[in-house]
Amino acid sequence: MASSSYPSTSTCHRESRQPPTRLGVLGVGELAESLLVALARGCLRDGRSRHDLEFHLSPRNDVRSHRLGWRFGAVRHASNVAVCEASLCVLVGVRPQQLEALAMELRESRALSKDHHLMVMAAGVSLANLQRWFAPARVVRVMTGLAVSEGQSALTLYPEDPLTRDLLSPAVRQVIAFEEEAAFEASMLAVCVNAWQLAQQQALLDWFQTVPGITGPQARQLLMTQMRDALALMEAHPDTPPGELASRIGTPGTWTARGLEQLGGKDGAHHRWQQVLDGLRSELN
Ligand SMILES: NC(=O)c1ccc[n+]([C@@H]2O[C@H](COP(=O)([O-])OP(=O)(O)OC[C@H]3O[C@@H](n4cnc5c(N)ncnc54)[C@H](OP(=O)(O)O)[C@@H]3O)[C@@H](O)[C@H]2O)c1
């Protein structure tokens, strides 16, 4: 993993050592709200007080802001500039196509200083562009998925940065930093996989419900158990490839083996998933 290009003694870091840590948010969208929920819960789980962490929110998104105010005491500001005045560490949650306009607004009002530390959640926008747009602030790229609010997710990071780790790690199970930006960009497709797997579960659920005598809730329980079992096996055997675990279950001559054969191979479902990933990755780069 790359070493941080930011000293851990930055103004922002010193501030984060003294309660309350103030985290600004520019763009209180769906993903930003999910991450804040996870962060607030994670900090409580780590034994920190609710008052150790303060969220400072940009305007717009009334419903989300009020919800975060009510749940976690988040402060809603009248302008984006006010958010930057209140907090040196700032999560940027606007959509990629909204980034340039936001950066222009902050530049024109000279809202950012070199002590600002921006954590930008946007696919397909390079760090070089972000640094140029949001200069003189320092910028890192982060990503997670909407399921982050459940507290089991990973947060990906480019480049490695101790301050971001320190600040956001209570929200997730793991922070994974990448040395190469192309790898970080591709890693975002893992977040998409999450939704595809859910859609796949739906297809399986639909099928099981066609079987006379299996109810919807029973089918759902059966499938959830299988997913938990698969996860448990992968966690129990971290050095064994999942394909090998599958083969150990699907020994020759079993029903499992017959299914594995049909789903694998050049025309199978697994290859189709790889093709989808290939196609999307080429669009991201
Ligand atoms: N949602 C997902 O499933 C998901 C999953 C993984 C990654 N992502 C990524 O996460 C990022 C955010 O996605 P999202 O789904 O959270 O988007 P979103 O719900 O649309 O949130 C973005 C919010 O930013 C606000 N905004 C835009 N420009 C602003 C400005 N200049 N000042 C203040 N607020 C501003 C928008 O307000 P208005 O509504 O008033 O325009 C919007 O509510 C994107 O890069 C997306 O690709 C999303």
UniProtKB/TrEMBL annotation:
Coiled coil: none annotated. The keyword Oxidoreductase applies. The lineage of its organism: Bacteria, Pseudomonadati, Pseudomonadota, Gammaproteobacteria, Oceanospirillales. Residues 1-11 have a biased composition (Polar residues). It comes from the Bacteria. Residues 1-20 are annotated as: Disordered. Keywords: Oxidoreductase. The keyword Oxidoreductase applies. This is Pyrroline-5-carboxylate reductase.
